[in-house]
Amino acid sequence: MTGDAVIDVRGLVKRFGAKTVVDGFSIRVARGQIYGFLGPNGSGKTTTIRMLCGLLTPDAGEGTCLGLDIRRQSAAIKRQVGYMTQKFSFWEDLSIAENLDFVARMYGLPDRRQKVVAALERLGLGNRRAQLAGELSGGWKQRLALAACILHEPKLLLLDEPTAGVDPKARREFWDEIHRLAAEGLTVLVSTHYMDEAERCHAIAYLAYGRLMTQGSVEEVIATSGLVTYEVGARGAGGADLGHVAASLRDRPGVEMVAAFGARLHVSGGDGAELEEALRPWAADSGLLVRRTEPTLEDVFIHLMNRSTDNFA
Ligand SMILES: Nc1ncnc2c1ncn2[C@@H]1O[C@H](COP(=O)(O)OP(=O)(O)OP(=O)(O)O)[C@@H](O)[C@H]1O
């Protein structure tokens, strides 16, 4: 293992038939980090996560996970990994406690009862232990899934879109728990489509069409994107026709994206000079306020996606 890296891989490639779904992926993840995987549907996030933990063998590339070789020691890696898949896969007519007990038996865990009680308490499931899994709301189902993932005390957690369709309060609580686990030394890889969740990661990787487009902390990803963004809004109380402004800006050279955020527009492009030129007439309009602003993470991701070529088509 290099330094304190829990994951250290280089040049991973995965092909399904003629299609290269992961192309030259390299990453290092330190112990206790929460690492977010973002990217459009089908960009290779799940496939990458599965290669990292030894569930899938790469066609090329090498590296280690938890100090073990991802090609030759995948069985030993899997024992130390907790994997929460996208699909809820519990017995709906068993209670929460019965489901956890079943999982503990599958793992052949010593002190089974004690571990189930500890997991129930940890995830706040104690009062609901007798409730049938099939009757749980989305947020509670995700808690049950997380409890099942940590029963065998893994060192690495892989969470594949763990909060899809879960309400904001339950998502926040789920993420608080992820942070508590990471603070105790667990390393977490999590795929998500939610920008607020990306912002709660220590670092993120953005994939598009199988390629790693950028990685680093949210601040680093924004700073290195090269994207320039201006905000356009009405000056004073007068109602400017921002729909008209947006429509005419979209055709101008240098304007890559125009997105409405309430009563403001975000106008972005990769070439600052061209963008400024496109905005000049609107900046001279006394009814409008045009000023440079920081791009959001979403602006950056859409910019990256526009720049990447669809080699899957
Ligand atoms: N076993 C397989 N056989 C053939 N193609 C596959 C297989 N698994 C995945 N793929 C293809 O590989 C590509 C990447 O899929 P993957 O599930 O890794 O993407 P993803 O980024 O996790 O997507 P999502 O956000 O929709 O979950 C997709 O085009 C998918 O159809």
TrEMBL record:
Signal sequence interval, chain numbering: none
Gene3D superfamilies in the record: P-loop containing nucleotide triphosphate hydrolases
EC category: hydrolase
Keyword line: ATP-binding, Hydrolase, Nucleotide-binding
EC number, UniProt record: 3.6.3.-
Domain ABC transporter positions: 7-234
InterPro entries noted in UniProt: AAA+_ATPase, ABC_transporter-like_ATP-bd, ABC_transporter-like_CS, P-loop_NTPase
Molecular function GO labels: ATP binding; ATP hydrolysis activity
A Pfam family hit: ABC_tran
The protein, known as: ABC transporter ATP-binding component
Annotated source species: Azospirillum baldaniorum
